[in-house]
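TEACHING EXERCISE
Course module: macromolecular assemblies
Task: Read the component lines below, then compare them to the predicted structure of the full complex.
Student: A.B.
Group: 4
Components provided:
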Amino acid sequence: MTDGAVTADAPDDDTTRDEAPHADEPSGLLEVDHLYVKFFTRRGVVHAVRDVSFTVGRGETVGLVGESGSGKSVTAQALLGLIDLPGRITSGDVRWKGESLVYDAAATLRRVRGKEIAMIFQDPMTSLDPLFTVGSQIVEVLRRHMGMRKRAAHARATELLDLVGIANPTERVDQHPHEMSGGMRQRVLIAMALACEPELLIADEPTTALDVTIQAQILELIADLQQRLGLSVLLITHDLGVVAGLCDRVAVMYSGKIVELASAEDLYHRPGHPYSAGLLRSTPRLDIVIPRLVSIEGSPPDLVNPPTGCAFAARCALAVEQCLDATPGLRIHSPSRRVACWRPFEAPFENIAVGAVATPDGSPSDGPVGASS
Amino acid sequence: MIVNIEEQNAHPHHAAPPLVEVDHLSIRFPIGRSGFWGGNVRHVHAIDDVSVTIGKGETLGLVGESGSGKTTFGRALLRRIQPSEGTIRFNGADITNVTGEELRMLRRNMQLVFQDPYASLNPRMTVLELVAEPLVVHGLAKNPNAARTQVVDLLDRCGLPEDAVDRYPHAFSGGQRQRVGIARALALHPAFIVADEPVSALDVSVRAQVVNLLQDLQHEFDLTYLFIAHDLSVVRHISHRIAILYCGRLVELASTADIYERTLHPYTEALLSSVPIPDPPIQRARQRIVLSGEIPSPVDPPSGCRFQTRCPLVEPRCRVESPPLEEKAPGHWAACFVR
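Instructor-supplied answer key:
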């Protein structure tokens, strides 16, 4: 076990290792261990996922949060061996109940994928085959993985549609995807994912393409299914609000790395990493009015040439020389939190929050005509 | 529907003279014929009898889910879509049917900022050409190069460096592209800007930058915005007043504070309670109203109140009669029988 330090003359972050990745986590159903994914493109090697380790315990809901290009979706795809050329898992391991899903895993993946681990994607429009009824698509899954007979499978498909809250399941089961709205298609995908009674559901931005009232329905459904079926969920999203109501623990990703992994309450109330804090501050809240939104200046680094030091250093107000020279590893900060930062926040979030002052009349105080009268 | 523009204006929140006045606006699109022989033409009722005013220097937030008609409404104000009924006045003049040179002059005064900064900028044009194009089209510059100083100045106001002018859109991130789009919209010094979901495609940390920029520019150029969005948290930060559309109808219109703190319409209530709050204990403890069912199709809208199929407070009357938009409190308009 190293203490997460890397010297300035070793820019290849492959040498950086996080300390004791699973020391403080519940023993995992799914264990991701020092995972690296690289894409070998004409522009150069894109270091999409760099040294990512986390676990998902039985019955647990874990959030993986990050902005575009942070590597959250690539991580999810890597878990199920869905990385296509020119991408490749270059080192690290993913273990499902102790079995590797990376090394000599073709047979294991075939068995596990769709059955023990199911996945739903962002776009419910493109994930269903337009030529077949939704029923026949669910039946196909049931026959392949569960070895069910056609008639039994059809009955089960109807049951599943009912389970995910589709009204008139007996009619809907024989409809084609184009006859359904986006929210209903997402429900069908969830039904399909649940068809084989999986133990882990990976949801990659499940509500991003949906309207807010429909998003609320789907999130409610996932929470409800998780309770009733004892499902573990890995929820991948860019929306801190979606995570807040659903997740026990949250991992924040930035340019291919997990920068903070903490219990949901710790993360939202006392973020330890300046990036998590910045992300929280720049997320407008419905219940708090601030005169001016706070943004994180600059943009994330190019992952073809990731910087030597901390990837966030260039945008970080607290960065010192050490941050530019060496990559901080994910280190234990408190019992329920690990942070990859040389100078993690010690003070409570409230003290460092800028400008979070509600204006009395609730309107933008620096607005012009008619802002407050 | 009894909506009186003078009454709306009586409220101090828009004591400023109105810049845009929309009166009983309806927009229908024909979508082919029904029946085997095509007996009757069917229509999408995209906007149904909407009246609203936007004061000078005001930001009106227009909120609605997909299919509510918010984009159609914004385009109609810019005269990109011809309304079926009703009138639009700009600066006091009726612009509902202006054409030709008059329309061209009008368009100098009103511009659009698009949602998707990846699709709205021509990848084969440099930033200089993109931002100078409106000037060239309107004959204010001979060619892009002649407008270079102006363009550099515009880019500077939008927070882009001078060396951006000779680069192509692909060299920029989403947030920077949106800044180019805003600079382009500002080139003609318009008075009125329709921003159609300008930050929805951007990452959270960048979103704040663009919202702040829009607010700064409003100060600097005394701009009036129609800010179209589905994200209620962002809308709250930028808007002075908010209009809520549901299935082509205006269901609530009030000052931002009234919409959020003294919500009247059950749809607005459900919409607000659907927005997750990034704070685990608060979010878990919230009483949420989860609407059942789907947004009705504007081709075949339900009778009576369009929200009646999903409304938790629905009464028999709502199913037959359509509730008018009434002023329930000073400056606070809502279309609901129950509230």
